[in-house]
Request: fold
Amino acid sequence: MRSRVRVWLNRTYAENVFFMDQLRRNPSDRAVDIHATHGDADSPVLAAADTADLEPEGLSPAGYVEYALDQCQRRGIDVFVPRLHQSTIVAHRADFEAVGTALLAPTPEATAVFEDKATAYEAVSSVGVPVPPWSRVRTADELVAAVEELEAGGHKACFKPAAGAGGVGFRVITRAPFSLFHLNGFPGPYVQLDLVVDALRRADQPVDWLVMPRLEEPEVSVDCLTGPDNRIRMAVGRTKKGRRRGFTLDEQWLKPARIIAEGFGLHYLSNIQFRMYGDQPVLLDVNTRPAGGLHQLSLCGVNAPWAAVQLALGEDPGVIEPPFLGQDYAVVSGPRHVLSGPVAREEADVVLAPALPMEVEPVDAAAAVLPL
Reply:
């Protein structure tokens, strides 16, 4: 009988409860134990894991590496999927290998390039991948100049942090004065230019934003699996246009994703996002981690999390082609369990029953994908 595989996910997104589900339902019928750690006792990933710990508070990145090495050694972790402090952790890959743990994460060079969006745009542009026009701004005057330049070209301006993930801090600039119209319905991404300028001028420190035109749909997220030999094993696009979701193998999206994944050492799972600038696909963002929606590829008959774990263990799954493309679908919400009792920080050793199987594979913290 083949040995049980022990996988650790640290302070990951709630959506990765479905990543965990797929590991357990792997096509190799291999036994998998999942360890999860988080700073929030109510994260559903803790309840979905076989064992769980609350992470210590206030650790520096270097201190977190020491904590992680201890976790791997004490827990007998075979594969570690780091999200928190990923760039610092991958710089210590040899230390993790020394305690018998493989890191399911890219090279230090790749994380350095893609931690900063301006650096990323410059890098991918140098290898021929189109990027949108962009400006890096730190002051109110720089923001106004960048917005006026875009508006003069007929574009709607938006901004986002130069470093960040998950759409945090993304806003679209509007010239419309603040009124009751903006208080109707749900809050949106639009923000008045004069309010932003005023906030910047009153701030006691500069910002670090990228200003660019608001790009058009469809948004296509290409999920990639790349080996440590820099050869891609899987590339499948997930499309988003309004509520509708779907899948694509169109080379206009997959070709630039392959160039990026293979050329920059995005080993194991990455997610490369594109949108339209006029009639041309351009890079939106690069995630050096598994996407929250990765499990949606199950609708195409693909178990990407398990293929990635195999690759990390040295068991090359070969080139993965989806046997079919699933039909279009939408995202709906549903409940997900959290722990019923408190978990002690650091000392916790909570043994939990595996999550119950679900008939459909959901999207975010408690979301399901349903066909349209």
